Structure formats: structure tokens, C-alpha cells
## 1
Amino acid sequence: MVQKAQRKQGLADRLRAARPVFLYGAILAAGTFLLSWLDYQRLARSFAGEIQIFLVAALFMALGIWAGARLFAARPPASDFSGNPEAQRTLGLSEREMEVLALIADGLANKEIAARLNVSPNTVKTHVARVLEKLGARRRTEALARARELGMLP
């Protein structure tokens, strides 16, 4: 019991002796913080325009990344959409012509459609002409609008 009390007393003496060291360390840390803060203030005043330009550029970059992710995100496949087979049969559209119509709806050009279907661009032109004729349209946009009215496209 006496040893325990002596150990406690020894620890208290050592903490009292270390108090000036802790105080000195705290003063050095506060001084270092103050010098860093003053240097930051000088830097912020010296380069205020550059900092503002950087912040605006970072904001626009973040906005661009967000907008790009929203615009170019993969759309979920419309697996439950079956179209309107009766309208397709009535108009006489073949399966290949329906594929071409769906790719037109995706915004692909004739060369891109040809590459996707592994056919020549002339074949795609023929399919597009037949689709336009069967839907009674003069332009691709009219054909897409007509196909959507008939429920053939989502």
C-alpha cells in the first residue's frame, strides 16, 4: 500500500516537473499556427483573383461532370416494351425495318446503323426509305413521331 502511494506521488512530481515543457510546447504550437495563418492571409490577398478563378473553374468542372453523368448515363433496357405488332403487321414493316427504326430513334446516322447491323450504308438507306414510305413520312422525325403515335416505339 505504501509503495502504491509512493508511485502516485512520484508520478505527480514528474507531471509537475513536466508542466513547463508542456507549456513551452503549447506556446510553440500556437506560434506556428499564428505564423501559418498570417502566411495564408498574405497569400490570399496576393492571389485573390487567381483563387476566385480557380473556385469558379472548379465549380464549372463539378457541374460539367454532374451534367455529363446525367446526360450520358446508360438507360435501363426497356425489356417489357413489345411495341404494337398489329400496327407493324398492318403497315407491312419487317423486323429489320423495325430494328432500323429503333436505331433511328436512338439518334444514329446511316453509317452508324450500318456498322451496328453489319450491312452496307446503301442497304440502310433502302431500309430508311421503305420505313419512311410505309409510315407516310418525309423526314426521320416525322417517322419517329408517327411510330410513337402508333405505339411502335417507347
## 2
Amino acid sequence: MSGWAIRGELILNCNCTVFCPCVVSLGKHPPTEGYCQTWGGVRIDEGHYMGEDLSGLNIGLLIEIPGLMARGNWKAAVFIDDRASDVAYEGLVKIFSGQAKGTTGLFKVLVSEFLGAERAPVSYTNEGKTRRLVVGKAIKGEVVPVPGASPDEDVVISNTEYWMGPDITVATATQGRVRAYGRVWDFDGRSAEICQIDWSGPAAEQAA
């Protein structure tokens, strides 16, 4: 298996009021507060990096954007599941820093300051419609879909060109605490997103 691939689920919670305008505007509309502060989590159901299995691992993310998403100048950090092998760790750092190109290659273009990558205990759990992410003492988050007209169906923005995936479930945070890299954030009640992801990229020799 050359290259890399990740299938699973991603959640994000940012400082925007519900709902974040970047999903539809693709970063052409400014965040509701004028700047973006985001934590996120990825649950890898199936995945590999150059033949190394990534299945079952979880990722935590911290992203800060000073204005329009599309203009770049992002700051970002990644927390890699401490159960990852050394090879998986290195591969995931390359994927989430954009070095491995493919779906997440935009990080290499948009992120001007990579704050760091570190191993941490990362727990991503689903309980009914609730998603919870705990990253050591750095991130403690919980998001739930916003109610729709039918209680059995989520409110979903579908067929978008959003980089994460075409179908985004509109959600809100019931907890969104970050204490990492000098950031102290609390986004309880703010905008959140849930997305099924299917990402991939080229082989390492092509991504160098």
C-alpha cells in the first residue's frame, strides 16, 4: 500500500456563533468574530501510511486563523495518539502538517507557523449523537448536532466543496475547552461540525 489514506470521522469546534460561514463560502467570508480559533479531533476507522496501519488511532488538532481562512497565515498544532508506532507517528505528523500532500496538503500552503506535534492520550468517543474528544490536559470537548425538524435526522449541509468532505453536519459544542500552547479557550455553545472523512495522498517519494 503506497501513499496514505484515512477514513473515519472529524469534529471541529470554533469560536464562531452557529454556524461557521467558512463551510459554504470556502473561506471567502470572514469568521463571525473576525478571526478563527478551533480545536478538532479525528477518529481513524481505517487508514495507512506507506503500509503502516493507522486504524484505530485518534488525532487532536489546534488551529488559529487571523482572518479570512483562504488568506492563510494559520497557526496549527497536532496531538498524535500515544498508541501510535514510531512509523505511524511520523506519518501522521507528515499528513497533518501537509507534507504528505493529498487532501491535507493545503496545510503546507496555509499554515505559516506549525506550533508543534506531540504524543498524547487522545480519546474520541461516540455516545448516541454526542461526540467527545479528550486530549490529555490540552483539549476537552463535546459536540452534538443541532436539532432539526425531524428528531431522527441531522441538519446537514451537503454537496459542498469544503476540504474536509462534502457533507457537514451542523453541530454545537456542549463543552469546548483548550489549554495548550499558551491558548486558553472555552467555546461552549459555539459552532461545531461533524464530518465523515475519506482522505488520501500520494506516496512518500512523490510527497517529498
